[in-house]
Amino acid sequence: MSLRLLEEAEADDPILSVVNLIDVFLVIIAALLLAVANNPVNAFSQDDYTLIKNPGEANMEVLIKQGETLQHYKASGEIGQGEGAKAGVAYRLKDGSMIYVPE
Questions:
Q1: Where do transmembrane segments lie in this chain (predicted)?
Q2: Do the strands 69-74 and 61-66 form a parallel or antiparallel pair, or are they unpaired?
Q3: What are phi and psi of 73, to 5 degrees?
């Protein structure tokens, strides 16, 4: 009879639910740390990146990270407008390089 009471008391122990919550929070923290480490614009990374948000739209943004410098450019919202003239043609080669041919 006394063994049954001890087993029931262990099952109703409120500290067990707190331990389970701590385990859940540890998993969430580990996932967040992995997400921060895999972010291309990570402050601790020495790699160079160019990140384009909303390409081709009026609210396009370009982030360029070179070493420890971060440059941020925003589109004016006037796509295809302005007082410019066509200055030449650019071609992309199979190896990914670009060639500019002035007119």
A1: 15-36
A2: antiparallel
A3: -120, 140
93 φψ region: left (φ > 0), alpha (ψ -120 to 50), beta (else): beta
CB-CB contact of 20 with 13 (8 Å): no
CA dist 95 → 21, 48, 90, 99 (Å): 52, 20, 14, 11
Which residue from 73, 68, 74 is spatially nearest to 41, judged by alpha carbons? 68
Angstrom distance (rounded) from CA 92 to CA 11: 68
CA atoms within 13 A on the CB side of 93: 6
Q: Could you read off the pLDDT of 1-51 as tens digits, one per residue?
A: 555 655 555 566 777 777 888 899 999 999 999 988 887 666 666 778 888
